[in-house]
Design a protein that fits this description.
CATH architecture: 3-Layer(aba) Sandwich
Largest sheet: 7 strands, parallel
CATH topology: Rossmann fold
Distance between the termini: 35 Å
Strand content: 15-25%
Oligomer: single chain
Bound molecules: NADP nicotinamide-adenine-dinucleotide phosphate
Strand order of the largest sheet: 3-2-1-4-5-6-7
Length: 237
C-alpha cells in the first residue's frame, strides 16, 4: 500500500525516529504533520524535510494543544506517536511525582491523540511506541517500563476497540538518536560500547531502521495488534 497522498500525523516528529519516519513518508509522497514541544526543533526539522510538511507546536500531555494538531484536518490516514522521554530513577529514592510526566506522555498523551484522530479516520493505522524495557526491564527504569508495558496493553486492546483501524506498536532497542546522546552525555562512548558488546548484531540501531518499521506498519494493511521488536536481538541475550 503506497503512502502517496496519505495524511500522516507524527506526534514527536521533530527528532530521532519520528523525524526519520516523516522523511521516509514524504519520500513516498505523503502529506505529513509533525508535532513536538520545541518550536526550534520543529523549524530545524522542517528545514531538512522535503515535501508537504506542516509543523505544530504541542505538548502531548496538553489535551487542548493536541486538538490544535488536528485543527483543519478532515481526513487522517495514519498516526504515529513516538513522543515521550525516558524517566529514570529508583522508586524508593525518587519522588513519585517525578514519574508522572512520563506516564502521562505515554498513556494520556496517546489517548488525547487517538481521540482526536479516530473521528477523522475510516481505515488506516495508529502506531504507538513501546521499547525493549517492556520485555527486559532494568533496575532504575521501573516507571518507564510500566509506561511502555501499558502502551503494549493499549495496543492490543485498541486494535479491537477501534477496528477496522489498525493499532500496532514498535518496541525498539538501543537506537542512535538525540534522546540517547542527551541522556548518556559524556558517558555515551563507554555505555554504547558495553551495549554493542552484548547485542547479537554488534551495533545499535539507526533511527532510519526504526522508521522503516513505522512505515511498514502504516503500509501493510494486515498487521494489526502487533508489537514489532527491532533491537538487533538484544532482548534474547
Ligand atoms: N532511542 C532509543 O534508543 C529508544 C529505545 C526504545 C524506545 N524509544 C522510544 O522511541 C520514542 C522516540 O525516541 P527517539 O529516540 O526518537 O527520541 P528523540 O530523538 O528525543 O525524539 C523525540 C521526539 O518526541 C518529541 N517529544 C518528546 N516529548 C514530547 C511531548 N511531551 N510532547 C510532544 N512531543 C514530544 C520530541 O520533540 P520535543 O522535545 O521538542 O517535544 C521529538 O520530536 C520515545 O518514546 C522513546 O522512548 C527510543
Amino acid at each position: 500500500m503506497s503512502l502517496q497522498g496519505q495524511n500522516i500525523v507524527i506526534v514527536g516528529g521533530s527528532s530521532g525516529i519520528g523525524f526519520e519516519t516523516a522523511r521516509l513518508a514524504l519520500q513516498q509522497g505523503a502529506n505529513v504533520i509533525i508535532a513536538g514541544r520545541s518550536e526550534e526543533k520543529l523549524s530545524k526539522a522542517k528545514f531538512h524535510l522535503i515535501g508537504n510538511v506542516r509543523t505544530v507546536i504541542a505538548n502531548i500531555v496538553n489535551e487542548a494543544a493536541v486538538k490544535q494538531i488536528f485543527t483543519g484536518l478532515h481526513q487522517v490516514n495514519h498516526v504515529f506517536i513516538p513522543a515521550g522521554g525516558l524517566t529514570t530513577g529508583n522508586i524508593l529514592e525518587t519522588a513519585p511525582n517525578a514519574f508522572r510526566q512520563g506516564l502521562e506522555e505515554r498513556i494520556f498523551g496517546a489517548l488525547y491523540v487517538i481521540r482526536e484522530a479516530v473521528p477523522r479516520m475510516s481505515t488506516g493505522s495508529i502506531t504507538l511506541m513501546s521499547g525493549k524495557l517492556a520485555d527486559r526491564p532494568t533496575p532504575g527504569t521501573t516507571m518507564t517500563t510500566v509506561g511502555v508495558s501499558a502502551v503494549e496493553a493499549l495496543t492490543r486492546s485498541l486494535s479491537l476497540e477501534l477496528a477496522p483501524i489498525r493499532v500496532n506498536a514498535i518496541a525498539p532497542g538501543w537506537t542512535d538518536t538525540p534522546l540517547v546522546s542527551n541522556i548518556l552525555g559524556t558517558q555515551y562512548e563507554t555505555v554504547i560500547q558495553t551495549v554493542i558488546d552484548k547485542i547479537p548484531v554488534k551495533r545499535i540501531g539507526t533511527p532510519e531502521e526504526v522508521a522503516q518499521v513505522a512505515i511498514l506498519l502504516m503500509s501493510n494493511g494486515f498487521i494489526n495488534g502487533e508489537i514489532l521488536h527491532i533491537d538487533g536481538g538484544e532482548r534474547l541475550v
